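Entry for the shared binder. Reason: the reviewer on the internal report wants the predicted structure included alongside the sequence.
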Amino acid sequence: MPVESYDLWEERRGIFTFTASAVYRGLLSGEKLSRLVGDKETYKTCILRYSKLKKAILKELYDNERGIFLRGINYKNHNIKNKSLDRTVDSSVYGIFEFNLLPADEPRVIRTMRNLEQKLWVPETGGLARYENDFYYRQEGRTKSNPWLICTLWLAKWYIAKAKEIKDLEKALELINWVADNSLETGIMPEQIDSLTGEPLSVAPLTWSHAEFVDTIIRYQEKKKALYEN
């Protein structure tokens, strides 16, 4: 497993499903690059490392009790036998399929993503929150965290990745349209919106929101074309 680091949100330290999955994807890419340039030593090292890492992630970062992936873990005093589990529902666990560790239609991934949608969806405005009890830019007295555009797009990517028929893309298109509808009239996309009023909050424009939107649109179009051809 990777050593402790700050999470995707730059808020807490630990060993996270997102980070570990990203490292796994990096090792897969390292294998491909080393094969292309004929670097046999690096090629073998990458295969060995990502094989062990995958086994560790599936063992250490999967919550057998709930049947979903954890946000992360912490080893007390760096002792693997003395760990604490971070069971906070966090949208970043989408990385388990995003980085090719498991396919989007694998049962453990399906349960994990369904749980995200159930626990983090904001009914008043729509959209997916970052994680449970996120207080960042949350108005005083509110019980719901604010929906983020990028997190909503991650959910759309999951629907795209697991689609087997054209009709399976309908939900993804709904989420894409939600993001477009919650952008400014100029097309500028904010980081998040108010959980009650839908007003844009925090940074606008946020490059991350725009990048995820473009990437999601490309994936949607490619998957739609592939399904039509089949």
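Summary line for the report: The beta strands are 5-6, 13-16, 62-63, 68-69, 72-75, 83-86, 128-129, 147-148, 192-193, 200-201.
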